[in-house]
Amino acid sequence: MKQKLILVFQSIQAPKFIPAIQALIATITKKILGLHAYALIVKSDNGLFAVDPEDYGVGMNLRMKGKWGLDEIERLKCYITLGSRVLIVGAHIGTFVIPISKLCKKVIAIEANPITYDLLLINIALNSVSNCKALNIAASDKNENIEFLLNRADSGGSKRVPKEKKLIYYYDNPKKISVKAFCLDSYLEEKDFDLIVMDIEGSEYFALKGMQEILSNSKVLVVEFLPHHLKNVSGITVEQFLSVIEPHFSKLTVPSKQQVIGHSQFRSYLIEMYNKGQEDPGIIFEKVQIGQ
User: How far apart are CA 83 and CA 61, in angstroms?
Assistant: First the structure.
């Protein structure tokens, strides 16, 4: 019987499942490990991490593959020096924070999900990171309380309550809570960052709108571009999304397409991607001219 249980447990960790099945597997995993199993410790290429047993997104990749997002981190190295200050909005459990902290002078890591934030603090301690300040807040265009979904099967997908209630955001029956959100221009004392990395599941427009002073001082912005987030979560157009970015940057790189685009083509290029349902986990805006 024990042998059969082990085989079942191994089989349910297969990486490719539809979201509803992932949610079921997350529940089963939690029961197998015990209701009081708070986190699993994983030694990965990103560092030493405490991961949520129910997480079949980042957590599963760390458990099964021993890494997460290393290609993206490698891509960002050219923008970071030992003197750099980095702002990460949507830090999750720290898979970007930990490696990047070793490359720069200071990291400010913002994470809205209180459960994930606790794991972030644990992981900062596990990896003896001393140059990171972590904040448990959401970023928005004003100081407010926002309704927020705590996804279980993919905690990295936790987000502000979407304007459109699609199954893709609710498949694992997330708990809804209220979190404190702030305009980062007024909340953060520090306004100068060499690199900003943002992955906040559809709240990007609101966060960017509330950090125009910070953006004016920054050199590089890396931000997720997902059409369904723009449409269903924030309820905005590509034009609105770009309206808070265009004044500050002159160059756009779309890594998934290996394309470099000038300022005059920002809108047409991203609108085309939007219409085709094409996404990228981190498009890169810079304050330089093409050719420099």
Answer: 31
Q: Give the H or E element holding residue 58.
A: helix 58-65
Sign of the torsion angle spanned by Cα atoms 237, 225, 61, 179? negative
d(CA 209, CA 185): 9
CA 284 from centre of chain: 14
For the domain made up of 68-286, give the CATH fold.
Rossmann fold (3.40.50)
HSE-up of 44 (CA within 13 Å, CB side)? 29
**CA gap 44, 48 in Å, rounded:** 6
Instruction: Report the percent of the chain where pLDDT is more than 90.
Output: 82
30-39 own/partner pairs: CB under 8 Å, 24+ apart: 30/54, 32/5, 39/119, 39/122
Say what the pLDDT of residue 77 is.
Answer: 97
First-to-last alpha carbon distance for the chain, in angstroms, is 65
CB atoms within 10 A of CB 77: 11
> Of 164, 156, 151, which is closest to residue 58 (Cα–Cα)?
156
User: What pairs with residue 198 in β-bridges?
Assistant: 89, 223
- Is pTM beyond 0.85? Reply is yes
> What's the pLDDT tens digit per position in 185-205?
999 999 999 999 999 999 999
Of the two residues 289 and 139, the one the predictor is more confident about is: 139
Contacts of 176 (CB under 8 A, 6+ apart): 147, 148, 149, 150, 161
